[in-house]
Amino acid sequence: MTWSEMQPLLTQGTLDTLYMVLWSTLVTAIGGLPLGILLVLTDKGGLLQSTPVNKAVGVVVNIGRSLPFIILLIALIPFTTAVVGTFIGPTAMIVPLAVGAIPFFARLVETAIREVDHGLVEAVQSMGGSIPTIIRKVLLPQALPSIVAAVTTTVIVLIGYSAMAGAVGGEGLGSKAVTYGFQRFETGFMLVTVVILVAIVTAVQLIGDGIVRLLSRRGRTA
Amino acid sequence: MHSTVTETPVITTTGLTKVYQSRGRDITALDGVDLHVREGEVFGVIGRSGAGKSSLIRCVNLLERPTSGSVVVDGTDLTALAGRGNRAGRELRRARSRIGMVFQHFNLLSSRSVQDNIELPLEILGVSGAERSRRALELLDLVGLADRAKAYPGQLSGGQKQRVGIARALAGNPKVLLSDEATSALDPETTRSILQLLRDLNRQLGLTVLLITHEMDVVKTVCDSAALMKQGRIVESGTVGELLATPGSELARELFPVTGDASGPERTVVDVTFHGDAATQPVISQLSRTYNIDISILGAAMDTVGGKQIGRMRIELPGRYEDNVVPVGFLREQGLQVDVVDEDLPAEVPAQSNGAHGAALVKETVK
């Protein structure tokens, strides 16, 4: 396989991967953030302490996290078909990717929010702040660097998942690597896809770390 | 300017009780606390850790909901307002916004600049942006940090952080300021400057301050009144003068510790307590001249408040106690409280046991 043969495949694969990861990250953030906040608020001693809600959400999140992604991918085919109309292609893959990453991200958000000093919550309560105020003005801004770090980790997990999704009708670099690199024994092609994936992951990590540093710098002694 | 304490109660707790459940056991943090804080005074609650001070101050703005009893702040019965603990109703939140609170660990938001931290309570109150910023700068000026508006809390020293904390607590123009061990994380010098600031604010703004502390020095420096807490109860309470007038008051003894032993045999050592009601004449020199005796002052802890002397003094008179009945009588006639100290004898007579106990307590405070 020559470079001119590889290039369009790689370009298409990279674009598909980025497309899937980008959208599924967005859906994951929208779904996982409230879930993570809910886990903290409903926990024992939390602002909205509710053992049944906390237990229920906890169980769902744990089930989501313990299912191997490849199985989730297959199990979700009917659901994906219902939502997108098909279970094949990059758009369809957004559904299982997000469903798989939401519980993971929710746990990371939970940890990030839990790290916020309770004294700050108390201070805002003493000013007459309501629970939405506390979430908006204290929990989220104070946990922002950790949440950004959580997003970075999630994006990287999603890049891994998206490669796996290639095996079950998805597109992207993973799918290309399986079709050309593995089934056609094109070792060179396989190597290039690996290099591209490593480069994407490294770039995401660097960007994420950079944002975290930028956000937390003002909190420290300058 | 002078602090104007009126008789109007601003904070009143009645039968305040707080019981926690911990591993199936009940732990009583507050056991029927009746507290009366008058308008315009600085009231200090002192006690060891675990005495229930923290629960008490958190119950005053209902950050903790008391198990029973009531809290009335500035005429509003907070315990009657809707909402439970964390899920405070609108009215309770409104009432809380009129009570400022400062914390031991400052509790400033590291993600916000100094100015934005002070604006936070105003944001909650729905004050417009321009007005918020005007008020924040005014408050920063009041606490002496006008030049640090754009700094972040991480760039400030402990004392500066607490100044920001105080400015933030004052943003909503509260009548009452609660101080939860506000100086306990600060060094002695910074502690003094923060206490001075609290005192100034108390006088300038007529702010009523309820503070809790474990340091007697804090009470000594700023408080008009004090209460001693032990095991969830208030065991002593009153103005500094009232406490001094109370025989055997542990707080008075610790606020005005006196030490000193007799310089030899055939001496009488007495503790004289001035609780502000005594005549303003120089009693000791009168005593000396009237009875023609030499008096040595072994130790004294005195303050002059509004031209009246407050405090305690340990003096030595020549001769045995029997020889000094008349001079001691003279001191009592002047409206002073006199306790005889005799270190040699075991604690059999009440007055003596008092003195010995006092000495022991003094050593403890020195530590």
Strand order of the largest sheet of chain B: 8-9-10-3-11-12
Q: What is the top-level CATH class of the largest domain in chain B?
A: Alpha Beta
- CATH-level-2 architecture of chain A: Orthogonal Bundle
Which structural class should the secondary elements of chain B be placed in? alpha/beta
CATH level-two architecture of the largest domain in chain B: 3-Layer(aba) Sandwich
How many strands in all of chain A? Answer: 0
Kindly report how far apart the N and C termini of chain B lie: 36 Å
Kindly report the name of the CATH homologous superfamily of the largest domain in chain B.
Answer: P-loop containing nucleotide triphosphate hydrolases
Structural features:
heterodimer; A: mainly alpha; MetI-like fold; 81% helix; elongated; B: 367 residues; alpha/beta; Rossmann fold; Alpha-Beta Plaits; six-stranded mixed sheet; 12 helices; 34% helix; 30% strand; MetI-like (chain A); transport (chain A)
Summarize the structure.
Chain A is an all-alpha fold and 222 residues long.
How would you summarize the topology of this molecule?
The complex is a heterodimer of chains A (222) and B (367).
Chain A (H helix, E strand, L loop, with lengths): L2 H39 L9 H16 L2 H7 L1 H8 L5 H25 L3 H9 L4 H35 L7 H10 L4 H31 L5
Helix pairs in contact in A: 1-2, 1-5, 1-7, 1-8, 2-5, 4-5, 5-7, 6-7, 7-9, 8-9
Chain B lengths: L8 E14 L2 E14 L3 E5 L6 H8 L7 E6 L2 E2 L5 E2 L2 E2 L1 H7 L2 E5 L10 H12 L3 H14 L15 H13 L5 E5 L7 H18 L2 E6 L2 H7 L2 E6 L2 E7 H6 L4 H6 L11 E9 L7 H9 L4 E10 L2 E11 L6 H9 L3 E5 L8 H17 L1
Parallel strand pairs in B: 3-10, 3-11, 8-9, 9-10
Antiparallel strand pairs in B: 1-2, 1-4, 4-5, 6-7, 11-12, 13-15, 13-16, 14-15
Helix pairs in contact in B: 3-4, 3-5, 4-5, 5-6
Provide a descriptive summary of the structure in words.
- The complex is a heterodimer of chains A (222) and B (367).
- Chain A has 9 helices and no strands.
- Helices cover 81% and strands 0% of the residues of chain A.
- Chain A has one domain (3-217): MetI-like fold (Orthogonal Bundle), CATH 1.10.3720.
- The mean pLDDT of chain A is 91.
- Chain A is mainly alpha-helical and 222 residues long.
- Chain B is an alpha/beta fold and 367 residues long.
- Chain B folds into 2 domains: 9-245, 3-Layer(aba) Sandwich (Rossmann fold), CATH 3.40.50.300; 256-366, Alpha-Beta Plaits, CATH 3.30.70.
- Chain B has a 6-stranded mixed sheet with strand order 8-9-10-3-11-12, sandwiched between helices. Chain B has a 4-stranded antiparallel sheet with strand order 2-1-4-5, covered by helices on one side.
- In chain B, strand 9 (176-180), helix 6 and strand 10 form a beta-alpha-beta unit.
- Chain B is elongated, with a radius of gyration of 24 Å.
- Chain B starts with 8 loop residues before the first strand and ends with a helix.
- Chain A binds chain B through residues 46-49, 117, 119-120, 122-131, 133, 137-138, 141-142, 144, 215, 218-222, and chain B through 61, 63, 86-88, 93-97, 99-101, 103, 105, 107-113, 120-121, 123-125, 152-155, 168, 172, 178.
